[in-house]
């Protein structure tokens, strides 16, 4: 089996309009020989499993989130307190990732990446015109 170039963590916002472009990016990076860790909430990970080809090496990592603990209805997802949970997930990895690619809405993920000495990139699936306005 071919040795991977390194690990890249992808952390999109928890909405399909953000997850889908990140998944496309994940497939492209996987083809280039990188190991991809795709981080999201349990319900989204469950849906993503159905989107991955059987031969994919993309790892799906659940960020712990129990909506009932936050006063939300069951199976509702929100982004409160995710920064602390991402910090724990990154620190538990055996191999240090090359970089973290996060959604535009997760600016705090840069602090976590820098804390571990990891390169950080913001990715947006939005069109250029919308971002320029």
UniProtKB/TrEMBL annotation:
<keyword id="KW-0472">Membrane</keyword>
<protein>
    <submittedName>
        <fullName>Uncharacterized protein</fullName>
    </submittedName>
</protein>
<keyword id="KW-1133">Transmembrane helix</keyword>
<dbReference type="GO" id="GO:0035251">
    <property type="term" value="F:UDP-glucosyltransferase activity"/>
</dbReference>
<keyword id="KW-0812">Transmembrane</keyword>
<comment type="similarity">
    <text>Belongs to the UDP-glycosyltransferase family.</text>
</comment>
<feature type="transmembrane region" description="Helical">
    <location>
        <begin position="6"/>
        <end position="27"/>
    </location>
</feature>
């Amino acid at each position: 089996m071919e040795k991977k170039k390194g690990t890249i963590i992808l952390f999109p916002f928890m909405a399909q309009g953000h997850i889908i472009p990140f998944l496309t990016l994940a497939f492209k990076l996987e083809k280039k020989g990188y190991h991809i860790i795709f981080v999201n909430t349990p319900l989204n990970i469950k849906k993503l499993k159905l989107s991955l080809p059987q031969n994919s090496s993309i790892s799906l990592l659940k960020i712990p989130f129990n909506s009932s603990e936050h006063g939300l209805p069951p199976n509702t997802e929100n982004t409160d307190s995710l920064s602390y949970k991402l910090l724990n997930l990154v620190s538990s990895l055996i191999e240090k990732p090359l970089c973290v690619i996060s959604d535009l809405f997760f600016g705090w993920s840069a602090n976590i990446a820098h804390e571990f000495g990891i390169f950080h990139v913001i990715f947006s699936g939005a069109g250029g015109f919308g971002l320029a306005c």
